[in-house]
Design goal:
single chain, mainly alpha, 8 helices, about 5% strand
């Protein structure tokens, strides 16, 4: 199943809140979603969410996620547990496990994640994919397989 990027975002935020000892900002969230998308493409041959991931100079960008959380700028995004509980009902258990795996593996500052992403072929190719700067599924599958 393909989800809304904002639903996956709510799930990631809630999962981190309930299981980890750190919180994240919108830039970190978009970086994590990049790896979630890669995880789904490699393991299910499907996107986690339909929206394109765009390569920007600083890192990756997902428009609907940015629109929803930009009010917090570089601050920590507050978590509303009710949102997490509601979104858990929308996400298949097997898909939630894929997201959980990414969150467990990726723990670090936004600078570390940005630097990792900026050295990867899908991101570099996305920067050259004028005019949309979209990171392609093909590039992600090839790189992460």
């Amino acid at each position: 199943m393909i989800y809304k990027s904002t639903d996956i975002s709510e799930y990631v935020l809630g999962y981190i809140y309930k299981t980890k000892e750190y919180r994240i900002n919108v830039l970190q969230l978009m970086d994590i979603l990049y790896f979630v998308q890669a995880q789904f493409l490699v393991n299910k041959n499907l996107r986690a969410f339909a929206e394109d991931i765009v390569a920007k100079d600083w890192s990756v960008f997902i428009e609907s996620v940015w629109r929803k959380y930009k009010i917090y700028c570089n601050s920590i995004i507050p978590v509303h547990i009710n949102n997490f509980d509601n979104v858990c009902k929308k996400i298949y258990h097997s898909d939630a496990l894929l997201v959980n795996d990414v969150v467990i593996l990726i723990h670090g500052s936004s600078w570390k994640l940005m630097n990792i992403i900026r050295e990867q072929t899908p991101y570099i190719n996305g920067l050259n994919n004028y005019p949309t700067f979209t990171i392609t599924d093909t590039d992600m599958k090839k790189f992460f397989s």
